[in-house]
Write a structure and sequence with these properties.
Length: 360
Protein backbone atom coordinates (compact mmCIF):
# COMPACT_ATOMS: atom_id res chain seq x y z
CA UNK A 1 0.00 0.00 0.00
CA UNK A 2 1.27 3.45 -0.91
CA UNK A 3 2.15 5.65 2.08
CA UNK A 4 1.05 9.29 2.04
CA UNK A 5 2.83 12.22 3.64
CA UNK A 6 1.86 13.10 7.20
CA UNK A 7 -0.11 16.08 8.44
CA UNK A 8 -2.60 16.33 11.28
CA UNK A 9 -5.38 17.60 8.98
CA UNK A 10 -4.48 14.83 6.54
CA UNK A 11 -5.12 12.02 9.03
CA UNK A 12 -8.55 13.24 10.17
CA UNK A 13 -10.49 11.29 7.55
CA UNK A 14 -8.51 8.14 8.33
CA UNK A 15 -9.16 8.42 12.08
CA UNK A 16 -12.86 9.00 11.48
CA UNK A 17 -13.10 5.54 9.90
CA UNK A 18 -13.31 4.04 13.42
CA UNK A 19 -10.50 1.57 12.72
CA UNK A 20 -7.75 1.23 15.36
CA UNK A 21 -4.55 3.13 14.56
CA UNK A 22 -1.38 4.09 16.38
CA UNK A 23 0.20 7.52 16.02
CA UNK A 24 3.99 7.37 16.38
CA UNK A 25 5.85 10.63 17.01
CA UNK A 26 9.57 11.28 17.40
CA UNK A 27 9.88 13.25 20.64
CA UNK A 28 13.63 13.69 20.85
CA UNK A 29 16.82 12.78 19.01
CA UNK A 30 20.54 13.06 19.54
CA UNK A 31 23.35 12.63 17.09
CA UNK A 32 22.68 11.52 13.54
CA UNK A 33 19.19 10.08 13.01
CA UNK A 34 17.02 9.34 9.94
CA UNK A 35 14.27 11.68 11.17
CA UNK A 36 14.13 14.55 13.64
CA UNK A 37 11.80 15.47 16.49
CA UNK A 38 8.27 16.09 15.31
CA UNK A 39 8.32 13.43 12.58
CA UNK A 40 5.18 11.34 12.81
CA UNK A 41 3.60 8.28 11.26
CA UNK A 42 0.12 6.80 11.42
CA UNK A 43 0.26 3.01 11.62
CA UNK A 44 -2.55 0.54 11.03
CA UNK A 45 -2.66 -3.23 11.10
CA UNK A 46 0.59 -4.47 9.54
CA UNK A 47 1.46 -1.32 7.61
CA UNK A 48 2.22 2.38 7.57
CA UNK A 49 -0.61 4.63 6.35
CA UNK A 50 0.97 8.07 6.46
CA UNK A 51 4.31 9.66 7.29
CA UNK A 52 7.56 8.14 8.49
CA UNK A 53 9.66 7.97 11.65
CA UNK A 54 12.87 6.99 9.93
CA UNK A 55 12.54 4.11 7.50
CA UNK A 56 14.67 0.98 7.48
CA UNK A 57 15.01 -1.27 10.50
CA UNK A 58 14.02 1.48 12.93
CA UNK A 59 10.66 1.93 11.28
CA UNK A 60 10.11 -1.83 11.10
CA UNK A 61 10.68 -2.01 14.85
CA UNK A 62 8.26 0.88 15.43
CA UNK A 63 5.62 -0.83 13.27
CA UNK A 64 6.09 -4.03 15.28
CA UNK A 65 5.68 -2.13 18.56
CA UNK A 66 2.63 -0.40 17.13
CA UNK A 67 1.03 -3.78 16.45
CA UNK A 68 1.49 -4.66 20.11
CA UNK A 69 -0.04 -1.33 21.11
CA UNK A 70 -3.02 -1.99 18.83
CA UNK A 71 -3.66 -5.21 20.72
CA UNK A 72 -3.04 -3.87 24.23
CA UNK A 73 -4.65 -0.43 23.62
CA UNK A 74 -1.81 1.00 25.72
CA UNK A 75 0.33 3.98 24.75
CA UNK A 76 4.06 3.89 25.45
CA UNK A 77 7.42 5.66 25.09
CA UNK A 78 10.39 3.91 23.50
CA UNK A 79 14.03 4.80 22.93
CA UNK A 80 16.22 3.48 20.12
CA UNK A 81 20.00 3.35 19.99
CA UNK A 82 21.20 3.83 16.40
CA UNK A 83 24.92 3.88 17.15
CA UNK A 84 25.71 0.36 15.95
CA UNK A 85 28.90 -0.73 14.21
CA UNK A 86 28.60 -1.91 10.60
CA UNK A 87 31.66 -4.15 11.03
CA UNK A 88 29.78 -6.06 13.73
CA UNK A 89 26.68 -6.52 11.61
CA UNK A 90 24.60 -3.88 13.38
CA UNK A 91 21.35 -2.96 11.64
CA UNK A 92 21.20 0.67 12.79
CA UNK A 93 24.41 2.63 12.28
CA UNK A 94 23.26 6.25 11.96
CA UNK A 95 25.21 7.17 15.07
CA UNK A 96 22.50 8.70 17.25
CA UNK A 97 19.38 7.86 19.17
CA UNK A 98 15.63 8.53 19.12
CA UNK A 99 12.81 8.66 21.66
CA UNK A 100 9.31 7.99 20.33
CA UNK A 101 5.78 8.21 21.65
CA UNK A 102 3.25 5.61 20.53
CA UNK A 103 -0.29 6.94 20.99
CA UNK A 104 -2.62 3.93 20.95
CA UNK A 105 -5.80 6.03 20.71
CA UNK A 106 -5.18 9.05 18.45
CA UNK A 107 -8.89 9.14 17.53
CA UNK A 108 -9.58 10.58 20.99
CA UNK A 109 -7.85 13.77 19.86
CA UNK A 110 -9.96 14.32 16.74
CA UNK A 111 -11.59 17.50 18.15
CA UNK A 112 -8.13 19.02 18.65
CA UNK A 113 -7.00 18.01 15.16
CA UNK A 114 -10.19 19.60 13.79
CA UNK A 115 -9.34 22.86 15.60
CA UNK A 116 -5.85 22.69 14.13
CA UNK A 117 -7.23 22.11 10.63
CA UNK A 118 -9.59 25.09 10.94
CA UNK A 119 -6.74 27.39 12.00
CA UNK A 120 -4.53 26.32 9.10
CA UNK A 121 -7.41 26.83 6.66
CA UNK A 122 -7.62 30.39 7.99
CA UNK A 123 -3.81 30.66 7.56
CA UNK A 124 -3.23 30.91 11.30
CA UNK A 125 -0.10 29.42 12.81
CA UNK A 126 -0.24 27.57 16.10
CA UNK A 127 1.36 25.25 18.63
CA UNK A 128 0.17 21.72 19.34
CA UNK A 129 0.78 20.74 22.95
CA UNK A 130 0.92 17.05 23.84
CA UNK A 131 0.81 16.38 27.57
CA UNK A 132 2.21 12.95 28.48
CA UNK A 133 1.39 11.67 31.95
CA UNK A 134 3.81 8.82 32.66
CA UNK A 135 3.41 8.67 36.43
CA UNK A 136 2.23 5.10 35.87
CA UNK A 137 4.54 3.57 33.21
CA UNK A 138 2.04 0.77 32.73
CA UNK A 139 -0.66 3.19 31.57
CA UNK A 140 0.61 6.34 29.93
CA UNK A 141 -2.07 9.00 29.49
CA UNK A 142 -1.99 11.48 26.62
CA UNK A 143 -3.91 14.72 26.17
CA UNK A 144 -3.54 17.28 23.40
CA UNK A 145 -4.31 20.98 23.19
CA UNK A 146 -4.18 23.42 20.27
CA UNK A 147 -2.99 27.00 20.72
CA UNK A 148 -3.64 29.59 18.02
CA UNK A 149 -4.50 33.26 17.77
CA UNK A 150 -8.17 32.47 18.31
CA UNK A 151 -7.91 29.33 20.43
CA UNK A 152 -6.45 29.20 23.95
CA UNK A 153 -7.42 25.97 25.71
CA UNK A 154 -8.30 25.79 29.37
CA UNK A 155 -5.42 24.47 31.50
CA UNK A 156 -4.73 24.37 35.23
CA UNK A 157 -3.38 27.73 36.35
CA UNK A 158 0.01 26.34 37.43
CA UNK A 159 0.59 24.66 34.08
CA UNK A 160 -0.71 27.63 32.09
CA UNK A 161 1.64 30.08 33.83
CA UNK A 162 4.65 27.88 33.08
CA UNK A 163 3.83 26.83 29.52
CA UNK A 164 2.43 29.97 27.92
CA UNK A 165 5.76 31.89 27.90
CA UNK A 166 7.29 28.97 25.96
CA UNK A 167 4.38 28.95 23.53
CA UNK A 168 4.61 32.74 23.13
CA UNK A 169 8.28 32.32 22.19
CA UNK A 170 7.36 29.76 19.51
CA UNK A 171 4.71 32.16 18.17
CA UNK A 172 7.31 34.92 18.01
CA UNK A 173 9.69 32.77 15.98
CA UNK A 174 7.47 30.38 14.02
CA UNK A 175 9.21 27.61 12.14
CA UNK A 176 7.21 24.65 10.96
CA UNK A 177 8.49 21.50 12.58
CA UNK A 178 10.34 23.13 15.48
CA UNK A 179 9.68 21.23 18.70
CA UNK A 180 10.37 21.32 22.42
CA UNK A 181 10.26 18.38 24.84
CA UNK A 182 10.06 19.52 28.46
CA UNK A 183 9.84 17.39 31.61
CA UNK A 184 7.22 18.82 33.96
CA UNK A 185 9.75 18.83 36.78
CA UNK A 186 11.89 21.30 34.78
CA UNK A 187 8.90 23.65 34.98
CA UNK A 188 8.88 23.13 38.76
CA UNK A 189 5.61 21.23 38.53
CA UNK A 190 5.63 18.48 41.11
CA UNK A 191 4.40 15.56 39.03
CA UNK A 192 5.79 13.09 36.53
CA UNK A 193 5.20 13.82 32.89
CA UNK A 194 6.41 15.44 29.71
CA UNK A 195 5.16 18.26 27.52
CA UNK A 196 5.84 18.13 23.80
CA UNK A 197 5.32 21.35 21.85
CA UNK A 198 5.14 21.38 18.04
CA UNK A 199 5.12 24.58 16.01
CA UNK A 200 2.73 24.19 13.08
CA UNK A 201 2.29 26.81 10.39
CA UNK A 202 0.06 26.88 7.29
CA UNK A 203 1.46 25.29 4.17
CA UNK A 204 3.27 27.89 2.05
CA UNK A 205 1.20 29.08 -0.89
CA UNK A 206 2.31 28.38 -4.44
CA UNK A 207 0.59 30.59 -7.03
CA UNK A 208 1.11 29.48 -10.60
CA UNK A 209 0.22 32.07 -13.24
CA UNK A 210 -0.40 29.98 -16.32
CA UNK A 211 -2.29 26.70 -16.70
CA UNK A 212 -0.42 25.37 -19.70
CA UNK A 213 1.69 22.21 -19.75
CA UNK A 214 4.35 23.54 -17.36
CA UNK A 215 1.76 24.97 -14.97
CA UNK A 216 -0.18 21.72 -14.92
CA UNK A 217 2.91 19.64 -14.21
CA UNK A 218 4.23 22.08 -11.61
CA UNK A 219 0.88 22.04 -9.78
CA UNK A 220 1.27 18.29 -9.32
CA UNK A 221 4.85 18.65 -8.04
CA UNK A 222 3.97 21.60 -5.81
CA UNK A 223 1.17 19.68 -4.11
CA UNK A 224 3.48 16.69 -3.64
CA UNK A 225 6.10 18.97 -2.06
CA UNK A 226 3.70 20.39 0.53
CA UNK A 227 2.52 23.66 -0.99
CA UNK A 228 -1.04 24.92 -1.07
CA UNK A 229 -1.42 25.30 -4.83
CA UNK A 230 -3.45 27.92 -6.69
CA UNK A 231 -3.37 28.01 -10.50
CA UNK A 232 -4.62 30.99 -12.51
CA UNK A 233 -5.08 31.46 -16.23
CA UNK A 234 -7.03 34.11 -18.14
CA UNK A 235 -8.21 31.39 -20.53
CA UNK A 236 -11.18 29.65 -18.87
CA UNK A 237 -10.79 26.56 -21.04
CA UNK A 238 -7.39 25.96 -19.41
CA UNK A 239 -8.36 26.93 -15.87
CA UNK A 240 -10.32 23.80 -15.05
CA UNK A 241 -10.07 21.30 -12.22
CA UNK A 242 -10.16 18.44 -14.72
CA UNK A 243 -6.89 19.62 -16.26
CA UNK A 244 -5.28 20.45 -12.89
CA UNK A 245 -6.74 18.01 -10.34
CA UNK A 246 -3.90 18.51 -7.84
CA UNK A 247 -4.49 22.25 -7.41
CA UNK A 248 -6.33 23.40 -4.30
CA UNK A 249 -7.82 26.31 -6.25
CA UNK A 250 -8.15 26.95 -9.98
CA UNK A 251 -9.01 30.51 -10.99
CA UNK A 252 -9.74 32.43 -14.17
CA UNK A 253 -10.64 36.00 -15.10
CA UNK A 254 -8.30 38.96 -15.36
CA UNK A 255 -5.29 38.87 -13.05
CA UNK A 256 -5.87 42.54 -12.27
CA UNK A 257 -9.29 41.78 -10.80
CA UNK A 258 -8.06 38.77 -8.82
CA UNK A 259 -4.79 40.13 -7.48
CA UNK A 260 -6.23 41.84 -4.40
CA UNK A 261 -8.15 38.67 -3.44
CA UNK A 262 -5.15 36.34 -3.50
CA UNK A 263 -3.65 37.43 -0.16
CA UNK A 264 -0.10 36.74 -1.22
CA UNK A 265 2.34 37.32 1.64
CA UNK A 266 5.85 36.44 2.74
CA UNK A 267 4.98 32.73 2.78
CA UNK A 268 3.80 32.84 -0.85
CA UNK A 269 5.69 31.70 -3.93
CA UNK A 270 4.73 32.90 -7.42
CA UNK A 271 5.68 31.20 -10.66
CA UNK A 272 4.89 33.09 -13.89
CA UNK A 273 4.50 30.71 -16.83
CA UNK A 274 1.65 32.26 -18.83
CA UNK A 275 0.93 31.85 -22.53
CA UNK A 276 2.80 34.97 -23.67
CA UNK A 277 5.38 37.61 -22.86
CA UNK A 278 2.76 40.36 -22.57
CA UNK A 279 0.73 38.38 -20.02
CA UNK A 280 3.91 37.55 -18.09
CA UNK A 281 4.73 41.26 -17.90
CA UNK A 282 1.22 42.18 -16.74
CA UNK A 283 1.39 39.69 -13.87
CA UNK A 284 4.91 40.74 -12.93
CA UNK A 285 3.97 44.42 -12.82
CA UNK A 286 1.27 43.67 -10.24
CA UNK A 287 3.52 41.72 -7.90
CA UNK A 288 7.07 42.98 -8.31
CA UNK A 289 6.77 45.33 -5.32
CA UNK A 290 5.23 42.61 -3.11
CA UNK A 291 7.24 40.96 -0.36
CA UNK A 292 6.74 37.44 -1.64
CA UNK A 293 9.14 34.69 -0.67
CA UNK A 294 9.75 33.95 -4.32
CA UNK A 295 8.89 35.40 -7.72
CA UNK A 296 10.03 33.38 -10.72
CA UNK A 297 9.36 34.04 -14.41
CA UNK A 298 10.02 31.77 -17.35
CA UNK A 299 11.84 33.13 -20.39
CA UNK A 300 14.97 33.06 -22.48
CA UNK A 301 17.92 35.28 -21.63
CA UNK A 302 16.98 37.56 -24.53
CA UNK A 303 13.38 37.93 -23.33
CA UNK A 304 14.51 38.57 -19.77
CA UNK A 305 17.00 41.23 -20.87
CA UNK A 306 14.35 43.08 -22.90
CA UNK A 307 11.80 42.92 -20.11
CA UNK A 308 14.31 44.14 -17.55
CA UNK A 309 15.11 47.16 -19.72
CA UNK A 310 11.42 47.88 -20.15
CA UNK A 311 10.65 47.65 -16.42
CA UNK A 312 13.57 49.84 -15.36
CA UNK A 313 13.09 52.41 -18.13
CA UNK A 314 9.38 52.81 -17.41
CA UNK A 315 9.89 52.96 -13.63
CA UNK A 316 7.84 49.80 -13.05
CA UNK A 317 10.60 48.38 -10.86
CA UNK A 318 13.77 49.48 -9.12
CA UNK A 319 17.04 47.65 -9.81
CA UNK A 320 16.76 46.09 -6.35
CA UNK A 321 13.24 44.83 -7.04
CA UNK A 322 14.30 43.33 -10.36
CA UNK A 323 17.22 41.50 -8.76
CA UNK A 324 14.74 39.60 -6.55
CA UNK A 325 13.18 37.95 -9.61
CA UNK A 326 14.31 34.42 -10.42
CA UNK A 327 14.54 34.62 -14.18
CA UNK A 328 15.33 32.68 -16.25
CA UNK A 329 13.50 30.43 -13.84
CA UNK A 330 14.57 27.13 -12.28
CA UNK A 331 17.82 25.46 -11.31
CA UNK A 332 20.18 24.70 -14.18
CA UNK A 333 19.75 20.97 -14.73
CA UNK A 334 19.87 21.09 -18.50
CA UNK A 335 16.07 20.87 -18.68
CA UNK A 336 14.55 20.25 -22.11
CA UNK A 337 11.13 18.64 -21.70
CA UNK A 338 8.09 20.11 -19.96
CA UNK A 339 8.63 17.67 -17.10
CA UNK A 340 12.31 18.61 -16.80
CA UNK A 341 11.46 22.31 -16.67
CA UNK A 342 8.80 21.76 -14.01
CA UNK A 343 11.27 19.72 -11.93
CA UNK A 344 13.92 22.47 -12.21
CA UNK A 345 11.38 25.07 -11.00
CA UNK A 346 10.17 22.81 -8.18
CA UNK A 347 13.77 22.23 -7.06
CA UNK A 348 14.36 25.99 -6.94
CA UNK A 349 11.18 26.47 -4.91
CA UNK A 350 12.35 23.87 -2.38
CA UNK A 351 15.81 25.47 -2.20
CA UNK A 352 14.37 28.93 -1.50
CA UNK A 353 11.83 27.55 0.99
CA UNK A 354 14.50 25.68 2.94
CA UNK A 355 16.92 28.61 2.96
CA UNK A 356 14.10 30.81 4.28
CA UNK A 357 13.93 28.67 7.43
CA UNK A 358 17.67 28.40 8.11
CA UNK A 359 18.41 30.43 11.28
CA UNK A 360 20.45 33.48 10.48
Amino acid sequence: MKTSSFSYPGIIDILQAHTPYVLATVLQTHGSTPQKAGSSALIGVNHLLAGTVGGGMTELKVIHLAQLALKSHLSDIFSFDLSGDITKGSESICGGGMTLLLDAAPELHLPVFMQLKKSLAERQKGVLMTLIDNANPEEIKISRHWYSKTNQPHLPDELRSKIEPLIAEMFEHPNDGSCKLIPLKELEINQDGLIFLESIIPRPSLFIAGAGHIGQTLAHLGKFLGFSVTVWDDRPEYATKSLIPDADFVLSGSFDSLHDQLQMGDDSYLVIVTHGHKCDAEVLRKVISSRLAYIGMIGSKAKVAQMKTSFLTNGWASPEQWERIYTPIGLDIGAQSVEDIAVSIAAQLVKVRNQKHIPQ
